[in-house]
Design brief:
The protein is an all-beta fold.
């Protein structure tokens, strides 16, 4: 079995809606969302995330008025319908159960169901996952076992609070919404230039709405073909082939760059702002990506 993978939303950067945070009354923070469409899994530990459709646009990180993501270098996603038997936002299962995502057809997480809460492991604690079909774990009612490895060992990760239009997570986290809303988890935010994720084996990857810490799965080098957003070596990003002078796959690993000190190693590419002007959140204004200029 493989480690968890986030399925490709490979693009040259588009600001989906992550993180402008504001405080709730209880002191937690409100974060914007990751409208992800597909997290694929072939067994209990392999999963992926697919985000956003492409539209023709010169920007690297814009969002259209209707909520769909713009950007000319996206690799199109696939549509996988979700069938929910419970509401992961309201957690409307009977007492002693929680609403989680599961693979109803065995291929990818595509629906929600109630499972018994059998453990009391809290946020950040190690956990054991029962596989994508059963989707049981030993986390408490507020968490789901995520970042699962080949032995089905992962980390208890909290569900987002709020609603799809007003998701909420704690400080330093972003609400990632995947697989047509069947998965809603608060993931640690990070800086792709610093690669400041604290857990060994993880990297800072763009999940289509923000930069979050996720398992680094394949360590694919620069300009080699990739298929998942965390396939590339941490510090790289899976981009559409139009980003490069040559790319042997449907997408390839590209490099981030610092707009304040731009350096690109691939010939014919230039350091281009990741976000459209005025849309980057504080601290992310200098994030760029090396692409062929439009």
């Amino acid at each position: 079995m493989k480690t968890l993978r986030l399925l490709s939303i490979v693009f040259v950067g588009s600001a989906l809606t992550l993180s402008a945070c504001s405080e709730k009354e209880d002191g937690s923070e409100e974060t914007s969302t990751t409208n992800a469409d597909d997290v694929g899994t072939t067994d209990g530990a392999d999963a992926g995330e697919d985000f956003g459709d492409a539209t023709e646009d010169d920007s690297v990180g814009d969002e259209s008025d209707d909520g769909e993501t713009g950007g000319s270098l996206f690799v199109p996603d696939s549509d996988i319908p979700g069938v929910a038997s419970c509401d992961v936002w309201s957690q409307d299962c009977p007492d002693g159960e929680k609403c989680v995502a599961y693979a109803s057809a065995g291929a990818s997480w595509d629906a929600n169901k109630c499972v018994a809460v059998t453990g009391d492991a809290a946020t950040g604690d190690p956990c054991t996952y029962g596989g994508a079909a059963a989707s049981t774990d030993d986390c408490d009612a507020d968490n789901w076992c995520w970042d699962v490895d080949a032995e089905n060992a992962g980390t208890c990760t909290p569900f987002c609070e709020g609603t799809p239009d007003n998701p909420m997570c704690g400080p330093g986290q972003s609400c990632s919404i995947a697989n047509n809303g069947s998965i809603t988890l608060c993931l640690t935010s990070c800086d792709p230039l610093l690669q400041d994720c604290a857990i060994d084996g993880t990297g800072c990857f763009w999940d289509s709405t923000g930069f979050v810490c996720a398992n680094a799965t394949s360590d694919i080098p620069l300009q080699e073909p990739c298929g998942f957003i965390n396939d590339c070596t941490p510090g790289l990003v899976c981009l559409a082939p139009e980003s490069f002078p040559s790319c042997a796959g449907a997408s390839c690993c590209g490099e981030y760059c610092d707009l304040s000190d731009p350096v690109c190693t691939i010939p014919e590419t230039e350091c281009t702002a990741f976000f459209e002007e005025g849309t980057a959140k504080p601290g992310e204004e200098d994030i760029g990506v090396c692409i062929i200029p439009a």
